[in-house]
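One such shown below:

_____
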Amino acid sequence: MRQGAFSETVSYAVFGMALDGTVQSWSSGAEQLYGFSPEEIIGKPHTLLVPPERGCDLEEALTLLRHGEETVHLETAGVTVDLSSLRNEHGETIGVAAVAGRTSVRERREEISAARIAGLQAVTAALSRAVTPAAVAQVFVREGAAAAGASGGFIRRVTPDGLTLRLEAAVGYSKRFEKAYRDLPVTSELPGAAAFRGVREIYFESAHTAAASPEFAREHAATGHEAVAFVPLHTHGSAIGVMTLSFLEPQAFAEEERELLRTLADQCTQALERAQLYRTERRARGAAERAVERTLRLQSLAAELAEALTPVQVAEVVVTQGIASTGADAGALQLLNGDRSMLEVVYGLGSDRALIDDQWRAFSTNAKLPSADALHRLQPVFIESAADIRAQYPLLDGSERSAARAGAHIPLVVSGAPLGVLFLGFSRPRRFSKSQRSFVLALGRQCAQALKRAQLYEAELQGRSGLSRLVERLHEGVVSVARGGRVEFASSKAREMLRPASLEEGRRIPETWLGFPLRSFAAELFSEGDSSVEARVMSEDGERVFEITGIPAARSDAALLVVTDVSERERRWRAEREFVDNAAHELRTPLAAITSAIERLQAGARDVPEKRDRFLGYIEQESNRLNRLASSLLVLARAQTREEAPRFAEIVLRPLIGDLFSGLVAHDGVELIVDCDEDLVVWSNRDLLEHALVNLASNAVSHTETGSIRARATRDDAGRVTIELEDTGAGISPEGLDRLFDRFYRGPTEEKRSGFGLGLPIVKESVEALGGRIVIESAVGVGTTARIVLPAARRMLA
């Protein structure tokens, strides 16, 4: 605290503090009493206001207020201070109001009534919630007038151009008065302007003194008040406005009343400055946030445009982003046609479709329209109201599109050459701020560059169309991938093979395909090296197998992926490997028996007639078995490979089946029955059909010890011929039925027989080679039915 700084004329000082004791507001009376200017004390700790040895007293008083006390009285160093808590609408203490003076408690209380103290506290409390200049002005014309005992008042603030004092808030005046005296020129002779210019207080104590100025007398008479006080609002010697308070009764305006008004004016000035700083900070923060948002939108736009490779894709991105960024009701991208005589909409979007309806889908570049003007001038055209339309574009005046609407028409230009116009439309009049115009122009520049790339890309695609047609004829799938992983071209075969993965041109290649890292595989083709790389891709069930060959980009901008479906080849190789493995396994048994017999003969058995004959019999038996195996494998191989198509001829079935049955040697008591019309003819290959029937009949004879074996042949209305071999043998279990056609499979009852497990696979292959199908039904202990269905022959049907 500065010693000896007290003024003898000071009646009281008013200041505000935060709960931690930091000084927040400072009146002129406080400056005179304590000797600190507002600049020196605001924001500083309360300890500067008391001697060091009394600092704990003030801190204790603040603690009491923080804990719920409403008022605390304090006397220190000849200064009396009344501290009152300031509360918000929720009853929470948010600050402290202080009224101090040099007089004794009794004198101060006689000089300053309790009503005035309460009024100042109410002003300070209300100010804590006022964050805008208008709110501050409202506080002072209400709470300030009440604290001073005035019946009305108003606050004027100077406009930014410094030419006008504008009414910020008023109370106790008629609407007519507020409207008539809303703006007061700074050069006016009225006392409010004079107080502002001279930075001095002006008091009119009664209507008599007000009549001294004829112009003011007219203004004063309109209020119905007797006394008026004009107190300038100033800071750092510069006036920012004027506070006016009026009274219904004449006033003497003694020094203590004038001091109260100055205190109120100081509080008002400081609060207005804080509110102005707050508003400026909010505006700056808002502008910064909008700038960041625009930057992020432009970055997002650039990222999306990098993925767009066709004009339509570019248009979709820009129009969608433009509408979202500006709040437009509709948008469209208008491109020049081939002869540059028309602007045509390639993409339009919006809630107000009237802005982009069919009437405006295409129009001449010579029409007197905003987009055409923007195209010719190579400058943007902003329409902000219907008045602009009437003045500049009579063709639009009166149409649905022009009614109270605004629009931005941005030419899309690359290297001085126009490509089209970006249009953003609004259903209501709109002012385009400088930042909004800059943003829309940046939007147009990015759009123009992306459109140019898209047009060059389309031209390149057209130039490659001949090569594309050639690639479409290949059995392999071909995909061209650009740097960055975008698909430039994908043949229809590639799209078919890579399903369900999508190969949309202009989009990034899929991340994975059948679990294979396709995107990273493609990315490696743009690294160092020019050698092709290969990989195999297989579906989960193993049924689909693909070979993928990557041809590096080397020094070009695109790499190639060549995809080959090798599923059939893999199945054939797998079948061949299984066939060879099984055949080798079956060959070991007869070969081992022959080898063993030869070794025995060589060891001396040839000299013993009985042994010699027995081992020679083994050799003959196993040799015959080898011949049968070789014959079966040969038939099976020919049926499988389809190396030459079977030769078909008309075959009368009854003699064929009869000859077959006559050669069978069945068990005693087993009846052989042929049920077939004499004239039933089938169009087929005799060798394959006979081989299949012989195998089926032999199996029936081997497994039927009682009952019958029946051969039945019929033709249906569609011309198909069905041949059935039905026996009453032992039957086959369900497990065995599932494996009947597996090569080298022999059921439990067959393992001791001399067969190879190739009979039924040969039957199946033979029937399929004839274009037919075979079905076997069986039940254990009941019997078996083998059914061959042969397709209708065109020759027979003719």
Remarks:
- The first helix runs from residue 28 to 34.
